[in-house]
Amino acid sequence: MGAVARSETPSAENPTDRQADPGAELGEPACHSTNLVGLSTALLASTAFNARPERLRIAGVREMNGSLFDMLAEAESLIEAGEAFNCYMMAMFGLDPEQREPGKRGPRRYRSSFFRLLKGWGYDSNSPEGAVLKGWVESRFGLAPTFHKRVIDGAGPVWAAYVEEKMSSRFHNNAIYVQLDMLYEFCQWALSRFAAPDRTHLTLYRGTNSFDEHQVVTKLDRRRRVVRINNLASFTSDRDTAGCFGDVILEIRVPTAKIAFFNALLPRHPLKGEGEYLVVGGDYVAEVRYD
């Protein structure tokens, strides 16, 4: 899951100490002027939103899929709801069982599916599938990525390579962004109905060995930093699991409105096993703990 080397002594090699100087703070996060959730992107990216979040809705998704949410309302468990969602997506987008259930062999399929993107992300968040997912966040929430294979610092070769991957015709068919819109809205419905009713935040963890992907904006005190999380990032609900991915543990309180996917959402998917959550990024106050 990701990064800074262990160090509690200020040094030139420790990014947390370099960013402690207010004069070295990063500027505002890269944002688009428009999005599909009806809030200022700058607000959505801020620590102020994360402290007092509002409910987010991708425009038109629930209105265009009323029959899905009517069907979900009949579900008596998250497993039952997940099966209903899978059946609806299979009917709407022609997602074959081979695409829904990793490991089953069958003829090669050319329809893009959100399952395929999740599988690619599970192998490597900097894969072409990861670029498509980051591009979806950019399109829907207005947040540009800060990292894809390397730090993205304005227009340049790194940005161009990311754009080429996120727009690849290999994945951009079968209304792939619409599939992801529906997955997000189902995730939000499932959180409020079954997984985290009446909760505005969940505490999640990420292990890391460098702050290249998630840059430190400023140091608040000995343990707390404002960290700019990439526009889409993996976290886990299990601290011990996070420790398997790095010596430094970032602990953040994530608004449920910024959770795009979580491990128990579907009965079958490629990200099982690590308690994984996909989190929409921005500036977060993080507790930095050394494993």
Write up what this structure looks like.
This protein is of the alpha+beta class and 291 residues long. The chain has one domain (15-290). 35% of the residues lie in helices and 20% in strands. It has twelve helices and eight strands. Strands 3, 4, 5, 6, 7 and 8 form a six-stranded antiparallel β-sheet that branches. It has a two-stranded antiparallel sheet with strand order 1-2. α9 (128-141) packs across α10. The longest helix is centred in the middle third of the chain and has 20 residues, at 176-195. It is globular, with a radius of gyration of 19 Å. 43% of the residues are buried. The model is unreliable at 2-24 (pLDDT under 50).
Radius of gyration: 19 Å
Q: Give the overall shape.
A: globular
* Cα end-to-end separation: 14 Å
**Average residue-wise pLDDT:** 87
- Multimeric state of these chains? single chain
In helices, the fraction of residues equals 25-40%
- Structural class category: alpha+beta
Q: Helices and strands, in N-to-C order?
A: HHHHHHHHHEEHHEEEHEEE
| β-strand number | 8
Taken as a percent bin, the fraction of beta residues is: 15-25%
Q: List segments where confidence is low: pLDDT < 50 over at least 5 consecutive residues.
A: 2-24
Major sheet details:
6 strands, antiparallel
Question: What is the helix tally?
Answer: 12
- The overall number of domains is 1
